[in-house]
Amino acid sequence: MVGEKIRVIEHIYRNHVSLDRCPFYCQLCSFRTTKLKELQKHTVHYQPHIKKLEEAKKRGDISREDPAWLICSANPYVLQDTDFTKMSSEASKIYWESKGKTQPISNQQPTPAANTPSTAIMEENFILTDFLGLDLDYATLANTPPPVIQQKSFLLSTPIIKPITPVVTPRKKPTVVTTPSKVEDIQIMQDPEIVRSLKRLDEAVTYNNSLQCQQINLFRQQNDYLSRLAGAMESCVKEVAKMREEREQRETERREEKRREEERAERRAEERKREERSRMERPREEERRPYYCSNNASYNNVNRRR
């Protein structure tokens, strides 16, 4: 149902609404849509727009894609409930198949009354010419006046409706812009003052172009110099970082070697202390060792001497 409703909305804006009453439209190719993104995309994918743009470029009207063609309507047509009619899927399919294609309204005029969306659902039996046979002095209130009006005699008379005479405004004469002839152009171009001014103008344009070329070359040279300088600075930064890493590595190795030397010195000092202690303890053990003899008497005598 949503897809069918969107299809009906697009049909109404495309075939029953003037170009300036659509929400978004293109003045170059008369493209209409209800979404801003589709309006922006149609400049690339919509073939009629591309053809119109190429034709305008060939004529010299425009030189490039002009965003002024894409317009958001300030007074878009607001869809009413009477613009839609609910139908079944089969009836909708038959209706769309039998519906003839009509050309969209491309002029930027208000929507005419005969072309409004509500005219599609009006009764077919209603004909506007049925009222053409009535007299000009016909009035329905005079045939059956209410009781209050019957008491007033001056209200019972039938009003006379006079036809409105059309007012014709005189047409303004178009202003004709006279262009100089070829002879006048040749005479103007042969004027020595104009020739000298044109020559000075050409010299000024040439000098300006040469200055611009010099500025462009100077800018390129400065850009090359800055790029080389940036490369040299980057290489210097890399070298400094590499030297810092090597220095830190050497410092780490030196500290590690110093720590190992200190550990070896501590081990040597402990070994010396251990040897000295063992040397000092060895004579004491020899003195404490008992002397053994063949008989007990000599052993006791030796102990006594000590």
Give the topology:
Blueprint: H1 2-15, E1 24-26, E2 32-33, H2 36-45, H3 47-59, E3 70-72, H4 89-98, H5 140-143, H6 147-150, H7 182-189, H8 192-288, H9 296-305
Antiparallel strand pairs: 1-2, 1-3
Distance between the termini: 130 Å
How large is the radius of gyration?
A: 56 Å
Low-confidence runs of at least 5 consecutive residues: 103-132, 134-144, 148-159, 301-306
Given the helix and strand composition, which structural class is it? Answer: mainly alpha
The proportion of residues forming helix, as a percent range, comes to 55-70%
Give helix and strand order, one letter per element, not per position. HEEHHEHHHHHH
Supply the number of helical segments.
9
For the biggest β-sheet, the strand order reads: 2-1-3
How can the largest sheet be summarized?
3 strands, antiparallel
Average pLDDT value? 72
What portion of residues belong to β-strands?
under 5%
Care to count the β-strands? 3
Describe the global form: elongated
Task: Please tag this protein with its features.
about 300 residues; mainly alpha; three-stranded antiparallel beta sheet; about 5% strand
Please provide a brief summary of the model:
By secondary structure, the protein is mainly alpha-helical. The chain has helices at 2-15, 36-45, 47-59, 89-98, 140-143, 147-150, 182-189, 192-288, 296-305, and strands at residues 24-26, 32-33, 70-72.
